[in-house]
Protein 1
Amino acid sequence: MKTQFEAMKIRNLSIENSILNTFLSELRQVDIQKDAMRFRRNIERIGEILAYEMSKSLDYQTENIKTPLGISPTALPTNNIVLCSILRAGIPLHNGLLNYFDTAENAFISAYRQHKQNPESFEIVVEYLACPSLENKTLILADPMLATGQSMVATFEALKGFGTPKEIHLISVIGAQEGVDFISNHFDANVHLWIGTIDEKLNSKGYIIPGLGDAGDLAFGEKLQH
């Protein structure tokens, strides 16, 4: 049982006023979110903001940068980053993070809800995974919607065979408090969650309320259900 001093570190960016709230509001608004290209771009921009905030926690080393007129001592990050996103909704978020961590290695995984006879119950199925070594690296695990938290946990379990990361950062755009609580009980205290905002609850089907709907469908079009 974790104590209050061992809790996962959570950075909820919506607590502070910033331009992030503009992008979040456009993701939620039913008229604006119908523009798929704008929807994808807003997730990408939120990814950039989350990447910038997360970058402040990385390790740095001063290097002497040669300019045309002299030497400029500059603190540069030294982390070996692996950026892993959950397909398909995670692609725009992945692009936003990659815009800032442009030397990162990349991993991709498919994790989806498989509904059986009861439409309100499901299990997370992982079918595809491509990943470099994670040994002693900084793993960034990105999923735009942190609903139940089961996808994030299932993804991490699938990645364990690729090595032990030095540190782990979880990135989401919108989460439900229930999902945040769930992953808090499944990740170690040295894991850090960076999230755009945390909504109050889930509905009976496991969707975030008020949320924004299905991020994958809004970004890439509706899919057939199997």
Protein 2
Amino acid sequence: MSALIHILLSEIRGAVRLGRIILPVLLMSVALPSFARAKKELVPNEYDLTIEHSVLAKAANNVVVLLQITAKENVPPMQSIVVIPVLEDTVNHHEIHFPEIFINSRNQQIYFDRYLYEEYPNAVAMRKRKGVDLSFDYLRSVKYEPWMANAVLKLRKQTCACSNPKDKSEVIIASLSGDEVPIINLYPVYLLPPADKRMKVREEQGSAFLCFELDKTEIKPNFMTNPIELQKIFNSMNMVKKDSDVTVSRLMIDGYASPDGPEKHNLELSEQRTEALKEYLEKANIHTGVRIDAKGHGENWDDLKEYLQNNTNIPQRNKLINITNNSRTADEKERQMRTEASEGFAFLLENVFPLLRCTKYRVIYTVRPFTIEESERVFETHPVNLSLNEIYRLADKYADEQERYYSIMRTAYLLYPDDSFINLTMSCLAIIRGEADVAADHLKKVDDCPEKSMNEGLVAYLKGDLNKAVMLVERARRYGVVGADKQLEEFEKLSLPK
């Protein structure tokens, strides 16, 4: 935890204006379905909406809008109050709209939920109950752009909820160019993966497409393309043998046949040919003292299914997919393909089945542990030989060089894309860069832990949900996550007094 625990995400460079603003907003009618319309034409009336406090601030790569709003007056039936926060550069005429705020009567809330939700999925829509003050916080963020440096925040009223509102009168409530500058830091966290006490086991793998005479099992090293295919196996073995940091433990070969011909015969043929290859490699002394495990698997239906799924230029492809996915025996599948999808089967025989008659091989080897200095060399030449813990210890050396640190961690992620620890770290780095969606995707792969809650809270903050952010960080604090207390203090700087 020595690096990146307390990294400064950014300073907020924005103005804060606190104080009550009474905003006269036109009371408006949203068109209801014909069966629910009021008989009497509704006339817009002014409505005083109180902005108790407001914050407009720049945080990292985002501009954050935070408002505390109170609606005291009752909203007449069949009517709504609609306000749109707008960030505008009044000099250069740039502007961006934040999601709408709907304050609804009972019927209008029902109408919104039924008919308008899909049109305004990010809007705040709340029902105002008669005689009860409605107070709520509005928090949204948007990606910062240079033109926003001199922007102001306006609340714009509209006289209808349609896509082309006619009335756009407005009031300015905050600016990004003020003197009061609150500072907010974000404290994303990560965990150092434990040192792996087990031996590091790695493998070099590939496929060879050996040629045999019809129904024969003898390996003929000079037959057709066999010189090239056999050399693939030797090259993989030699590449591993040359690495002084590793010890080869065994060679595994798995033989497959194509799905044409009787299943039983193909299984026996693949077993005998795979055993013949094992004997050939042993006699060729591919590597002294290395055990060779060989197994024939018969017809290669798995690779055929994968090929059908990934290639769309196959005649009668959907029919072939349906046949290969059913529960019949292999021989019955072949018969169906021949008779019910003959054009597609002919294509497979010529173009695909030769690829399915293959030998997959894996050179299994173990790797010794490395010091930090050695890890640097190995990282540049063969990073797969490093454990995740070794990569973290190397990255920690560059904790003060953010781009180098990120580059090392990016490589670790490519090597261990589903590991919980590296995904937690990648979420941390994404938060630092203000990339909320990227961080959220990484967190989906993180096992449940307090640190995950901490980073989920920061993602919620970057996405504009301060209440959720506080809840998640508070959960992390209860479990003793380092930085959670400070993060809650930072959120207080944006929290509005009640």
Protein 3
Amino acid sequence: MTVAKRTLQVACVQLRSGDDVMENVRVASGFIREAAKTGATFIATPENTTLMAPDGGAKIEKTFSEADDPALPLFCKLAAELKITLMIGSLAIKTSATKTANRSFVIDADGNVKARYDKIHLFDVQLPSGETYRESNTVEAGHNAVVASLPWGRVGMSVCYDLRFPHLYRALAKAGADILTVPAAFTETTGKAHWHLLLRARAVENGCFVMAPAQGGEHANGRKTYGHSLIIGPWGDILAEGGIEPGIVTAELDLEEIAAVRGRLPSLHHDRDYDLS
């Protein structure tokens, strides 16, 4: 008797968000609908899905508490309408008068928020190109790693700069994650150097699928993001890749491949504690 494969149709939405929240919701929703028409039942959007503000002050002015955020209920309604699992890569959720959480949401096919994750690692850096980023000026860091349990598997959540901290993904994989999500707005400079390398490494290290929906192109505030949304298999192979323009990338995931790869490379079971002398 032939046993049916355990497969999942997925999609990453690539955006070029600006500072008009409801316009960004409209554009993202259109691509989510397009992805659902291809048969995708798990769809992910990038970091800063609804807002890429020109500066921290402008961001604070256009953000709300989670209870009052205008975008979240619309995305919940859309997930229920399309009967999909939807990961909104991140929304800026106001936590105080001066700070927001960079919060990712997993919404189930009934339109309920299944999991929330606040970005733990904040991007504070001055690049050789002269670009300066101080995310901690306006963002409150999260503290908890999150794995969302869904009918078809488990999703380990992260956001953008988290990608550079492999111990987070090790913890997610050991907690049972099948898919690691890395919604991002990588800069053009760092993206060219490290985006593919780091995402493929996180897949190989942990024997997980990786979905990395990205912002891409030049935004209204002049910032340039790298794009190249990726879907990667647990052996490190690139299953689908976007370019710079907004749109969708899709793939079929064979979830049985996770156990097969981990059987060939059982490194999750070989970690050891050690001392530095």
Protein 4
Amino acid sequence: MTDKIKIEQITPLLMRMADALERLAPAYHFPENLDQAEGFIWEAQLRKLQKIEVIERLPLSCLQGIEHQKQQLLENSRAFAKGLRANNALLWGARGTGKSSLLKAVHGQLITEGLDCAIVEIQREDIQDLPFIMQALKQSDRRFILFCDDLAFEEADASYKSLKAVLEGGLSGRPDNIVFYATSNRRHLMPRQMIDNERGSAINPSEAIEEKISLSDRFGLWIGFHSIDQETYLAMIENYVNFFGLSVDMEQVKSESLTWCIGRGHRSGRTAYQFITNLAGKLGVILTPNSW
């Protein structure tokens, strides 16, 4: 009788403790039907794959000055979407040069070509959740581009080892229906001083450096992005003006855009788009990137 009373008294307490633990570390939740959206984003705090109803992106034709990069990523992505093996891709280079925009534009191009492929975004700080996400996506017949924007690792950050294993390691390898794309300002994903420190402190410096930069080698496709010249910058401005149908004097706008980029300190695709956003605001025009 006493034991029964103790159990009845302890049970509610145990249930409250279980509820509290669930709130602190909820179970992983994935949509039952992964065919219902073009894109998803990983909500780490909720441990949930959230559908994205509308992906804001521009068509490939709007991205100027990166023709070779367009071709490389589109060919790799198209092969993947058609059921063929494709490389993980690292888009690296100067800030604002169109890395993320290209990735989204290529995905949009696949959709317009009738190729069923979804894009899943994960934040840099949530890389440790990749194995769980990939395990869930592996169960689907659909193909997925896993995407991490602005990927980089700082000193004393050991999570890069987990990413290495996810990309190519393990006996099972990467699932056939998943490819991993990342953008970064660094070619080797790690700061120069981090590699230099390994060179100075390791018993075998060359082995230490190889271990650090081998993460980038997991990406079979490296696509570099670089600063643009004034001619390309002005071509971007003109292309945006025509795409959004802005009624302006082109020569005056080009002159103003040069002043704008001088104020920003550099020329880039991002700077050009920011200028167009500012110009559209002055004209009272609502930009609709997804109207193509």
